Amino acid sequence: VQLVESGGGLVQPGGSLRLSCVTSGVSFSLYDMSWYRQASGKQRELVADIDFGGRRNYADSVKGRFTISRDLAANTVFLQMDNLKVEDTAVYYCNARHLLGINEYWGQGTQATVSS
Questions:
Q1: Which helix (H) or strand (E) holds 95?
Q2: What percent of the chain has pLDDT over 90?
Q3: pLDDT-derived band at 43, boundaries 50, 70, 90
Q4: pLDDT tens, residue by residue, 76-116
Q5: Can you give the three-state secondary structure of 44-59, one letter per residue?
Q6: N or C: the chain end with fewer CB closer than 10 Å?
Q7: Which 3 state secondary structure label does DSSP give 87?
């Protein structure tokens, strides 16, 4: 199983980034897919998830600004981040968790920095 994130970078406040997580060895019908983030000196936190049935949930801090989606044919999960704030600066991680809790996998992370 592999999860490979990309799309991070440096953006000004109010800007946008689109993160991608290309997966291999993961069936979206069996796995809940999530994006987490970890800011420097802070604990990792859940940002958004999309379950095996396509239902979405978001952290309150990103509701209305971030959108999680998936492309079944491309085995890819996306996180569209709009109206970015300085406090969104973090390393963003892709996570795949089996719906029965049998196992889970993490990507290596991608850095998103919001700064003027």
A1: strand 90-98
A2: 96
A3: very high
A4: 999 999 999 999 999 999 999 999 989 999 999 999 999 99
A5: CEEEEEECCCCCEEEC
A6: C
A7: helix
CA distances to 39, 81, 101 from 19, rounded to whole Å, are 16, 8, 25
Pairing label, strands 45-50, 56-58: antiparallel
**Which of the four pLDDT bands, split at 50, 70 and 90, describes residue 21?**
very high
100 by Cβ neighbours in 10 Å (0-12 / 13-18 / 19+) ranks as: exposed
The amino acid at residue 43 is Q
How many CB atoms lie under 10 A from the CB of residue 82?
A: 14
